[in-house]
Amino acid sequence: MAANESNRKNRIIIFLLSTVVVALSLYFYMSSFGFKLPEGKHANWLKIPILVLSALLGYLGARALNAALFDFVFRIRRRYEAPTLVRNIFTLLAFTILFVLLFKYVYSDYDLGALFTTSAIFGVIIGLALQDTLGNFFSGISLHADRPFQVGDVIVVGQQKHTGVVEGITWRAIKIRTFQNHIVLVSNSNAAKEAIEVAPRDNLNARLVFFSTIYADSPAKTIHVVREAVRDADNVSERIKPIVRIRGLGDSSIDWEIKYWLEDYAKYNDTDALVRQRVWYALRRNGLTFAFPTRTLHVERAQPARPITAEDEIADRLSAVDVFSPLSSEELRQLATATAGHVFAPGETLIRAGEEGASMFVVHNGRVAVQVPDRGGPRTVAVLTEGNFFGEMALFTGEPRTANVVAMEETEVLEIGHDAMKHLFDTNPGLAESISWTIAERQADLAKGSAESAQTSLHETAGLLASIKRFFGLR
Ligand code: CMP
To answer: What pLDDT is attached to residue 453?
Structure first.
């Protein structure tokens, strides 16, 4: 910063000094002719220093104008630096105009027109030879002036649909880094002729992901299930909820599209893949089915829906859960029949704090984290593994969920609903009491650190039992 500043100062001093030297030289030279243009035999030769010195002065003037215009006005009003090429062209134009005027003044009896005709012919020849280069050059200027995209934006350009992140715009080409980490250079003149699709970095850009389900599946359920599964996936923006909608009714499938918005568009390949993964798990968990070719579809639909885990296995798992220890094997079997298995992907939220809930879960395979909202983000208060249960608080008391429960790896859980529990309470009155103890323990766990936690737990057990009885209509 400081080096830049002293450089700037030096440049201004050199500029002022040279202006003074040139102006003084012109002054003394002109004074020797009484401030008139030389006349006589060698007048043309004597005029050369005048033309050179005044042209130099003109050049310095053009530079000063350039600095005034671009360093101050342009930067302050438009808040970005003018491209170097635009500045150079400005100086060149201003200088050419000045030079032509000076030349006409000093050598008034020479015809500049003739000079231009000859130079115009040269210009045409050079122009033809440099057609492509000049094309790129001018397209580069228009790209810089328009600024349709910036470094860091994702663009799709050219007939071959080159896609990648813009790394730079030179006077010859746009440099793109593709998602295969290759560099593609698209010449400016080609880019100027083609449509360019831009996904600006500071913009919420959307993506579409497609999938198909069978006709037997409910569209309303599919929309809900897929949207919930997709919304908290990594890099899916929380600012706009994903949209799930029917794209078409195909021969053997309902065709869907998911429109979602990304935080970082450059990672859309990974995010698309994650969204598809979430859809797979969500459909499977909720008994929805991806569409297959019609022949396969008939075979699939002829079979009854297959539970993820066999009933015996579920009954075994439930018998090892402490809240269900008072149940007889017949009751366990009944409970297993009413239990549904679900598979969650790593990172998926099974339960959200504050939401209503009418079921509890037993971890059958995998691991989940219980998280409570905290100032610096969710804080994990417990990790539950095979045989542990959660979600009982809302199920038994009707209160909103007290914590988030998130899958730490692919996790299969067994869901036990309100109706199944009500049936058990009706047949086994002692169960309500043992469950209220367990819930009280959990709540004491939450309030850990407080001195009265042990007493609170005793006191709360009675309160909980009363609320379970009330909520389930027990006597
Ligand atoms: P529920 O409130 O229905 O939903 C969130 C669940 O997280 C809650 O029931 C409990 O099952 C579980 N939970 C809350 N706090 C803890 C904790 N401290 N230890 C273990 N599990 C908890």
So the answer is: 47
Ligand 1 centroid, distance to 385 Cα (angstroms): 13
Answer yes or no: is the C-beta of 211 below 6 A from any ligand 1 atom: no
Query: Using one digit for the tens of pLDDT, what is the confidence trace for 231-269?
Result: 999 999 999 999 999 999 998 899 999 999 999 999 999
Percentage of the chain lying above the pLDDT 90 cut: 41
Query: Which pLDDT value is given to residue 400?
Result: 93
CB 444 near ligand 1, within 6 Å: no
401 lines ligand 1 (CB under 6 A): yes
Residue 427's nearest CA partner among 362, 336, 332 is: 332
The mean of the pLDDT values for the chain is 84
The response to whether residue 393 sits with its C-beta less than 6 Å from ligand 1 reads yes
Q: What is the pLDDT of residue 19?
A: 93
Would you tell me how many other CB atoms lie within 10 Å of the CB of residue 392?
20
* Ligand 1 mean position, distance from CA 346 (Å): 19
Token pair of 295 as six digits: 């022949």
* Closest residue CA from atom 18 of ligand 1: 446
Tell me the mean pLDDT in the region 227-234.
Answer: 94
Across the range 44-73, mean pLDDT stands at: 87
d(Cα 336, Cα 364) in Å, to the nearest integer? Answer: 13
Please tell me the total number of residues recorded for the chain in this structure: 475
